[in-house]
Every structure is written in C-alpha cells, then in structure tokens.
Amino acid sequence: MSTKYELFDDLENKKARLCKAAVSIFSDKSFNRTTVQEIAQKAGVGKGTFYNYFDSKERLLSFLLDCGTVKLIEYVKDSIQEVMEPRDKLEKAIDSQLEYFNKNHDYFVFYLREMWSYRQGLEEQIFKLKEEYITIFENIIKEGEDSKAFKNVDIETISSGLFGMLSVASSHWALFSSEFPLENINQSVKEVFFNGILRG
Amino acid sequence: MSTKYELFDDLENKKARLCKAAVSIFSDKSFNRTTVQEIAQKAGVGKGTFYNYFDSKERLLSFLLDCGTVKLIEYVKDSIQEVMEPRDKLEKAIDSQLEYFNKNHDYFVFYLREMWSYRQGLEEQIFKLKEEYITIFENIIKEGEDSKAFKNVDIETISSGLFGMLSVASSHWALFSSEFPLENINQSVKEVFFNGILRG
Amino acid sequence: MSTKYELFDDLENKKARLCKAAVSIFSDKSFNRTTVQEIAQKAGVGKGTFYNYFDSKERLLSFLLDCGTVKLIEYVKDSIQEVMEPRDKLEKAIDSQLEYFNKNHDYFVFYLREMWSYRQGLEEQIFKLKEEYITIFENIIKEGEDSKAFKNVDIETISSGLFGMLSVASSHWALFSSEFPLENINQSVKEVFFNGILRG
Amino acid sequence: MSTKYELFDDLENKKARLCKAAVSIFSDKSFNRTTVQEIAQKAGVGKGTFYNYFDSKERLLSFLLDCGTVKLIEYVKDSIQEVMEPRDKLEKAIDSQLEYFNKNHDYFVFYLREMWSYRQGLEEQIFKLKEEYITIFENIIKEGEDSKAFKNVDIETISSGLFGMLSVASSHWALFSSEFPLENINQSVKEVFFNGILRG
DNA sequence: CATGAATGAGGCTTCATTCAT
DNA sequence: AATGAATGAAGCCTCATTCAT
Hints:
Four copies of one chain form a homotetramer.
Chain A: H1 13-26, H2 36-43, H3 47-53, H4 57-80, H5 86-103, H6 105-114, H7 124-146, H8 155-176, H9 182-195
Chain B binds a DNA duplex through helix 2 and helix 3.
C-alpha cells in the first residue's frame, strides 16, 4: 500500500498528528468521552491549535469518517480496476477491504463504532460515502449476475451483508484478540461467501 | 412471539415506558445526544422519576443493551431447542434473528449503533452477552463441522461474520428504506451463506 | 412610584434577584467584563440556575434593557395621561424621567452604557423601544407646535436632544458625584429648555 | 478643517490605517465583538503588526477615545479662541462640535457607544478628557453668567446637558437616518438652547 | 519590521444528578 | 412514589497575545 492510501499521510504535519491522536484515543474510548484537550495533548499541540485545523470537534469526526471512507473506496476501486472477471473482482475487493482494515486497526475500531451515529445533522455525506462503498459490491455482484457467474440474489441485501460480514468479523478479531489472522479470515469468508458453508 | 419475548413488556409500567421512550429517541439521535429530560418527557413522567428506576443514564443504556441481548438469546435458543440437524438449527437461528430485528426496528437501529461503544467501563457484561449470542452460532457451526454437514472454517470468523451479515443487512434496510423485505433478506442470506454466491 | 413601576419587583423571586445582581455589577463593570458566574453568585444562586431563567447572557442584557425601557415608557405615559397642556405635559415628562433615573441609579448607569450597543443582532426591539420613548417627546412637541405653544423646530432633533440632555446630565451626576441634586437638575433643564439660556 | 484636526492623519501610515479600520468596524459592531484579527485584516496588515503599534486591544480603545477627544478639544478651543462674547463663543462651540461629528460619523457612533465604558481600569484619562471637554462649555457658561448674558443655572447640569443634547441628537441622525441635516440640527439646537422652546 | 501559526486562560453553556416538597 | 427547580462539574470554543521565522 503506497503512501497514496495511507490515512492522513498526505495532510499537513499537524493536522495529520491531530487525526492520528484522535483515532488512537477514539479507538479506546468513544468520541463522546474524548475531550479536545486530550486529543491536542496527545498530538503534542495546544488546545487552540486544534481549532486552527478543525472548526469543531464534530467536524473532526466528520472529517475522519469521510477521510477513511474515501481512501477505502479509492483503494478498493484501484485494486479491482484491471480485473475482468466478477468473481476475481469480488475476491480482490475482499482482499483489499481486509488489508485495509489490517493496516488501520485503530481506525476501523473507531470507524465501526462511530459510523452508525450519523443519520441526521450536517454530515449526510458520510452516509453517501458508506453507500458509495457498498455500491462497489453491488456493481460487481450485478455484473456477476449478468454474466451468470453469480446467482440471482437480492443485491442490496447481499452487498451490505458482505460488508457487514467483513467488518464485524474483522472487528471481532480486533476487539477480542491480540492477533489478527488476516489469511484465515480472508479464506474463510471467501470460501463461505462463494461456495457456502455446506459441505458437498 | 409471545409476551415472553417482548422487550420491556414484563417490566413495571413506568420502567417499560421509560425504556420504550429511550429506545425511540435513541434510534433517532444517539445516546449521547439524548437528555434524561427528553426521555422522561416522552415517557410522560418527571425527570426525577427516571432516577427511581435507573441509577444513572449509563445504567439505562446498559440495561437496554442487556435486556435486548438477553431476550434475543432466549428467543433464538428457544427456537432451536428442539431442532436436531445443524443446518436446520442454523436456518432457524437466522429466521429468529431476522424476525426479532423485524419486530423491533427502533431497538436494533439503536442496538447496532451503541453496541460497539462498550469496551471498558462497568459494562463488560454487554460484551459477554454479545459473545454469548455469537457463541450460539459458534456451537451450531461446530456441531455442523463435527457431523460433516458443514465445512471446516474458522469458526469465530464465520460466526461473527454471520452475525455481521444479518445485522448490517437488516440495518441497511431499516436505515435506508421504508420497507423491510423480511422474506427476501432471509432467503438471500440463507442461499448465499449455505450454498455460496457462485452459480453451479 | 408604586410597585407597578419598580423594576423587576413583579418578577419571580429568583429572576428578580438575578436581574438586580446583574444590574448592580453591570453598573460597576461593563456587561462584557461581567461573568455569569459573578451574577449568579451575587444573586445567591448556582450558575446553572441562571440558565433556568435566561436563555443566555445576551438574553439577560436584552431583557434588562427592554424591561427598563418598557417601565420608563409606562411610567412617563401614565404621568402625562391626564395632563392637557403641551407645556405641562412636557414638564411632567421631564419630571418623570428624572424621578425614574433617580430611583434607579445603578440601572441607568448601566442603561446609558449598554443602550448604544444594540444595532444589529437579534435585539432590534431595544431600538424600537428607545425610539418609542423618544416618540413620546415627539408627540408632545408636535402637539405644542400645533397649538402654537411651542416654536417650530426640527422635532426629531429636539426630541432626541432633550432625551440626551436629561440622560447625560443625569449620568454626569451619577458618575461623577456622590450627590444627585434632583431638584436643581430639574429646574435648570426646564428653565433652559423652555426659556433658553439667554437672559432677558 | 485642516489636516491638523483630521483624526489619525498625522500618524504613521500603518498606525493610521489600523485606527481607521478599527473605528470603521467599531461603529458597526461594538469594541468587544470585534477581534484584533478583523482590525488587522481590514487595515491590510498582519495580526502581529497590530502589536507593533499598540500594546493591547484595550490600549487601542484608549488611544482612539483619547485621540478623538483631544482633537475635538483642540478644534473647539481653536474655534472660539478669538471670539469675545460668551454667546458667540457658545454658538461657535456648538458649530464646531456638530461640524466635527459631521466630519467623523463612524468615529462618533463608536465614541458615543464606548465612552461610557470607562470608569475604572487604567483609563481614567478618558474621563479626564471628557471632563475637560465639558469644562469648555462650563467656562463659557460661567463667563456668560458673570457678564449677565446668561441666566444663573446649574452649570454642571447644563454643560453636560448641552453635550448630551448635541451628542444624542447627532447620533440619532447618524444611526437612524441616511441623511445628516447639519444645518437643521444646528439651528434647532441653538434656537432652543438659547431662547427656549416656548413661543413668545 | 512584518507575519500568522501556536497558545491557553477564560467564559459560556449543557446536563446528569440531587433533594426538598 | 413523583416531581422539577437547583446545582456545578465538565467541556467546547474564542481570541488576545506571543514568538520564531
């Protein structure tokens, strides 16, 4: 994964530090139990400096969610760009999402926790992005159906379901275990999602 | 679904009203943006009364999450109690979770949002319960592996993954759509989870 | 002056105490240098209590200015109600404004200081009221012109000018002197305003 | 009015620009709601530059009030210097104050708003100056009384009252009207102040 | 001199919780 | 048991001021 996909690494130094500090604390406590003070302190800057980079604490949240989703979308889209077969595309997309999670544990513990919070308020954009991400799955599955590679299923259900399967399984490991058996997760999910859990 | 499984219906009148009011507001805003005032008001009681039934706002959250998880566990466990075959058990469990979600939309929008928040603090119990629920899946899948009905997969991954698939697909419909096509969701998830998305 | 005209005396106990505390401090420092903390403390209540009675510190200011202007208008209007001759009316109005100032030194030191602050923002109403007060003078003077008792002058100029003369002269005494020679002020202003400063 | 009396025009370039920017903003918002940032920006300099010319925001206020009062005093004193008769002197003084207001609308809107704020703090000097200005009126009136041109009145009351009459009438026009009928104001004030409002 | 990023003291406001009635 | 006025700890944010460049 080149710098292009590194969360925050293309931001100004201080802004990146603030983002990283925030994510690190948010993955431990929740957004609401974290104070701006703490974030600034962890980033090694003054409290006022925070407000040179973000309009408010809420906007930081919005920015972080946005940022991660945009990068994830970029990353996954890039990874499937030159793949032709729907099945291969879906494999690649699964690989990519899991890799991405694996590269950014803190971020995704935070992400999974806070992504559900945004239904109303200013930040409808988050929802749009989450939808845009799931749309990647939807498009691949639709393509697979058209080419008779995949069965006819309810595309919305299965796309969001796949996203849920990957996210929750990843979180499960991130939250409850010290290891993150990327390969196992990858293989098990793919095996079941492509061929089902039934033997023979 | 008998009263036994109805959330809050076996509580004292006012406590039940407070729970229902809370869930209704929480599904709209998040826990943190909801005030005790609002909950009491919606329940039609005074603010002080709230504290006759709950030690604190946090304890209400804990109680609600707990309550829903316990009932879900009861409900699913009861539903599979007399089923013998692992595959039938898993089908039944999937049916039950989806039914349960369907009966309690507000609750599960809230549940999905807040369940991730609890890692530290007093409320480890929530985690235990969530784990206990996933353990139901784990046990069924283990049984299925033992009887050669199911393939060998990473059980933790696939159990939490199934939970994620069901939860996120359900939420997807609950959040983004006015309808909730229970039967479609059920069939699509089962078809993919049991047989995979690949045709032939 | 009956209770009817007493500033704040017809408010709830705590609200009145907060108003009185605020005015007392505002007359010493300015609004901006006074904290809500101080006001609450001087009123003998908790800081949070302040917000049970006023939406914000700004709204307190608005309320205080409003309140004083309304009462002044009431007081002056009542005092001239049964007077027929324009000259007598104007005398009575001058008497009343000076009496009112005299009864509420703190308030008017505060009033004169803050009344100019409100041009934009929510509180256009203040301006309307100040205008409404000056309109009392305008109407009397117009009447006096019509009945040939008064000369033809620019009514807006002379009405606001009279208000300024009374206000600034009163403030002068309130700010720079320990005494407030009500009678002297009254007589001197009237003598000059009615007959001019020129002898003979 | 030669440069001698132009506010700020004999200051260094940047200092003058800062003063003008400040007055312009202050006449719109109040001192307290204006930030140093805004002033610097409007003056077209950096925020740090502000502090090369003024020790603090407070000192700017002090300087502005001071500056305007000193110039006003100079201007009025100069204008009456060669006038002999008290009545003519007073007329000239009134002319001058009104001219001065007219030349510096923004400044006087600001001045009238902020002049009352200074009772304690470092800036007693402001009060002294305001007093010094009113003393000009006091001296003329005293002289007029001695020469029997003027009646015996309470000199402090009438001097501050005249200042108030001129200031508030001027502000009235500046704040509430797009025009400033200098001649009308001048004539009406003089007519009333010298001869009274009563006809015959 | 000029700048503007960095700072943190300080103030407003919210809201969970208490308690007298 | 029920209430809601009272409380004050806690947190977000502003902005005057500093200082390295």
